Hints:
The complex is a heterodimer. Chain A contains 4 helices and 12 strands. Chain A is an alpha+beta fold. Chain A has one domain: Ribosomal Protein S5, domain 2. In chain A, the strands form 3 sheets. Chain A has a 5-stranded mixed β-sheet with strand order 3-4-5-7-6. In chain A, strands 8, 9, 10, 11 and 12 form a 5-stranded antiparallel β-sheet that branches. Chain A has a two-stranded antiparallel sheet with strand order 1-2. In chain A, helix 1 crosses helix 2 and helix 2 packs parallel to helix 4. Chain B has 3 domains: 44 residues, CATH 2.40.50; 62 residues, CATH 2.40.50.140; 82 residues, Ribosomal Protein S8, Chain: A, domain 1. Helices cover 23% and strands 36% of the residues of chain B. The interface between A and B is medium-sized, with 36 and 32 residues.
Amino acid sequence: MVGSYKPELIVNGKRLDGRMPADLRNITIEVGVVKNAVGSAYIEWGNNKIIAGVYGPKEALPKHVQDPERAIIKCRYAMSPFSSLEEHGRTGPNRRSVEISKVTKEVFENVVLLDRFPGAEIDIFIDVLQADGGTRAAGITAAAVALAASGIPMKDVPFAASVGKVGDTLILDLNKVEDNYSDADMPVAISPRTGDILLLQMDGNLTKEEVKTGIGMIQKAGEHISRLQREALKAPYERILEKYKK
Amino acid sequence: MQRIVVPGEKLHTAPIRIENTTTDRNGTYSCILGYFDDENKTLVPLESLWDPKPGDTVIGVVEEDRGTTLTINLNAPYKGLALTKFLESDISVNDIVVANVKVLEKGGTIMLLKPSAMKGGKVMAVKPSRIPRIIGKNNTMIKQITDATATSVIIGLNGLIWLKGGNIDLTTAALLKIEEEAHTQGLTQRISDMLAAGMKQQVR
């Protein structure tokens, strides 16, 4: 943490940006923003702006990475150099982006029907244009929509969100300042159909009960996020249906 | 009733066998973005990838001549491979070829039969999920287009379409319209109107 100075993150029961502890930021999702990609999505999650693109399945190269039984997923999470005020957005891969790419890849290995494409690879690119805390959760949410829009068969459209702790209060969906000064931060990705937890990481300390309550908060918020994902996926088709309804 | 479904959405309250779905004890769930008919229990993909099956007609571009084999780009997850000793005509690199799928090999190459080079014409790409709609029931849709525009059309199930002669621009526009509006009602009528208007303009 940054020195011993710690701003007060909750004043009169409200957070710095006016939210209540269990409130999400505003989320908008748009599908099909990158025409060259097989599937793509753009998400605005508060001040986060993220583009996700999916390419493939195509022949996995180099050949020694091929799996004759199933497809492999390659994931690249990257922050633009201008995305953040701090060192996060420096050019090229770094420890943090390699880690996030890995956990994101593992989220999607559990939902995509990889055995349909033996020997192939599926590329997922997540590019953060503007960062304000919780980009890995927003990136997973956007990449899930991009994958579904690409036509690659998958069991579910997962979503992700984070929960944290300020003093004794659990807060949902931390922004940058809260992320830096809170006592704990726990991003979670969930498959909404089965309730399976696909990603669980934690910074700081939470008790057993707090972890349970936190995951409950994310599941509840997930109903809203999942609905937005479904609406975004259906929107281009419903627009055309609407046009010819009369 | 017909509705648009996304991956993970429940289609039926009991496990039943439908293509592109997953089941558990409590129900059947979609695995793709598709159009589901509750009465007939059919799931038509809105976005899908070409699934190679023996006998499929495909269109591709020759990428490389390896002496004994030709590798053919099929705009699909896997490359096409054709043996040169069975060729009936001369085929060189960058030719557009029409071929049939013999088998999808385990390593992930598609063995092709009887490739033949197409002279002239052009190739357009559409989403593979739209090919059944472009062909129509008993070829009605594509026949309607070729009858009106007099264009020769060969449809590859991999999503590539070869066009030559006639009113190519109108054919292309009609095919793109089908690609965009495949899931709507009354599309045949709209295409017919579009073709009539397009051909009338050309006569003037």
